[in-house]
Amino acid sequence: MIAAQAKLVYHLNKYYNEKCQSRKAAISKTIREVCKVVSDVLKEVEVQEPRFISSLNEMDNRFEGLEVISPTEFEVVLYLNQMGVFNFVDDGSLPGCAVLKLSDGRKRSMSLWVEFITASGYLSARKIRSRFQTLVAQAVDKCSYRDVVKMVADTSEVKLRIRDRYVVQITPAFKCTGIWPRSAAHWPLPHIPWPGPNRVAEVKAEGFNLLSKECYSLNGKQSSAESDAWVLQFAEAENRLLLGGCRKKCLSLLKTLRDRHLELPGQPLNNYHMKTLVSYECEKHPRESDWDENCLGDRLNGILLQLISCLQCRRCPHYFLPNLDLFQGKPHSALENAAKQTWRLAREILTNPKSLEKL
């Protein structure tokens, strides 16, 4: 048993050093290329409208606010200033979303975003995004990369297609630190020892973001209140949870396997599903020793089996907001197909670790 475990870990490490690292290097190169173009577009936007200041800064070889969705798809979160005169309200009526309401006694004119406040005093995510989209469209025509970048049509999101190869969504957002949403108040679960009080305090201090984007839990039937709502996002908090042991290595393996074998019709699976399932696996295996290097194979198999179960049940709950289903709106046939493909992959890795050389 131990020999089989060690063999699997050996082949996974080999796969990580060869395939995962080359994937990372290729994506880093793409990110540099993409961020040059996006920075140039955002510089033009800022000239036209100084309230939209580019926050796409490089720190320690990372671009702040950039998320990799897949090797050709990225999201850049553009942090806006001065949320201060608004109250953050998440009463659970819109899963995964919250609203920003003008604080009592505050005048509209005190807000930097005065013309985006609705009659009932809400700061409208849709109105801000609509204005931003117009500015980006103008900037694309003026910027020095105008030959290689164009707007993606037929969407209310702000998306750029670069060199006909990459798609980048630019999402206006507010950073919320020092508060924690009510809809995530159940976390951490009292009976689970992970991640421990110190890490919990760090995660909550990271806070969350409010994004101006279509909320997929609302799926097409948006009332005006819903289109004014902001989408909750916990990227920094989630990253902090995955520090230590082989957690990040495990996620890197899953992303690489997804990119190579689970990029399927209907796009049922993305990297965020993988990140979510690693967090759930941490709860199931709360001891640090469960994430030692020699447990890598067990953890990876556990996550792949959990993924198959989620696909078969057609439900993958968001880690911090379990009422939000990350498979919402995905075609059932695509989820079924993904379950079959994931099962084939898991069986192959488990029964014949050497097959990783070909995967």
List the helices and strands and how they pair.
Elements: H1 2-48, E1 58-59, E2 62-63, E3 66-70, E4 73-79, E5 86-89, E6 97-102, H2 125-142, E7 149-151, E8 159-162, E9 166-176, H3 197-206, E10 208-211, H4 224-228, E11 230-233, H5 235-241, H6 247-261, H7 271-284, H8 296-313, H9 332-351
Parallel strand pairs: 4-9
Antiparallel strand pairs: 1-2, 3-4, 5-6, 6-11, 7-8, 8-9, 9-10, 10-11
Helix pairs in contact: 1-2, 1-6, 3-5, 6-7, 6-8, 7-8, 8-9
Structure write-up:
The protein has one domain (1-358): Beta Polymerase, domain 2, CATH 3.30.460.90. Helix content is 43%, strand content 14%. It has helices spanning 2-48, 125-142, 197-206, 224-228, 235-241, 247-261, 271-284, 296-313, 332-351; strands at residues 58-59, 62-63, 66-70, 73-79, 86-89, 97-102, 149-151, 159-162, 166-176, 208-211, 230-233. Strands 3, 4, 5, 6, 7, 8, 9, 10 and 11 form a nine-stranded mixed beta sheet that branches. The model has no long low-confidence stretch (mean pLDDT 92). One of its GO terms (cellular component) is nucleus. Mg(2+) binds at residues 73, 75. Monomer. Homodecamer; composed of 2 back to back homopentamers. The protein may exist as monomer in solution and oiligomerizes upon ligand binding.
Give short descriptive properties of this protein.
359 residues, alpha+beta, Beta Polymerase, domain 2, 9 helices, 14% strand, globular
